[in-house]
Model the fold of this input.
Amino acid sequence: MKERLGRIAPYLFIVLASAAAIYAIVRRRHELVAVLGNLGPLAVLASVAFGMLGTGTTFLLWRQLLRGLGVDPRSGSFRLFFVGQLGKYLPGSVWPVVAQMEFGRKKGIARRTMLAANVLTLALSLTVGLILGAALLPLTSTSALRTFRWFYLFLPFLLALLHPRAIPGLLDWLFKRIGRPPLGTRLAWSAMWRAAGWALLSWVLLGLHLYALTSGLGVVGPRVLVGAVGGFALAASAGILFVPAPAGAGIRDVVLIATLGFSMTGAQALGVGLASRLLLIVVDLVMAALAVLGSRIWRSHLASV
Done:
């Protein structure tokens, strides 16, 4: 029974997570259609393209950290990451980590290594996102920065965690307390810096995803671009910190709308924030589907060789 449950659990996870993501779109489909009609097809396509590039770069960040921990999951890593990411649409923020730990185990990667890579990915993305927001928002909207400055209370803690020995050391301490083997490896500074570069690029690309939407409303210019990148980084980081909500729903939208308010009306900011959130759900579904399809094609190719 346990073995059978283990075989069907991944498929059950994919169904539930995909259903939650699709429901989030369907529930607000009328608002989405109205917003997309105002934006125009070119802006929407550009936004989706930048969203796919941004999420793809997050995958490269995660894979860089896995390599730094001594694992190189070439086969199936794309599927492992993007299918696991669908878990963020279930209540709570732990499901992507749990899913990737289980999927990784089936690939021969220890759960503790997958846990370390995911915690490091989260901490690095948060830290780079908060720093980027702090650096860019004063150039566009000091009021937005003042309103949400309490998010930066997390920054010193996150910076301390980014020492290559910090998170692996904390995990080893935890594993010892529960009677599990230690992680047995530490990241090099070079691996951490390369991963930080991928994190920065990911935030910039996702900011361009947002800027493509504002351009569809005719709101353009260097100041708007800087605000879109900094605002998205701050809003998405706030959503990650707000653990109970699926994919940071609610708090992410509030912060994003507030940071866009300097360049457009409240109604326009609300529409762009909604379009950004729902289009990124579409991006996650597309990337997961491509990962599953690509994995099947690759297995078929190997079987025919």
In short: The two ends are 35 Å apart (CA to CA). Residues 73 and 158 are 27 Å apart (CA to CA). Confidence is low (pLDDT under 50) at residues 244-248, 300-305.
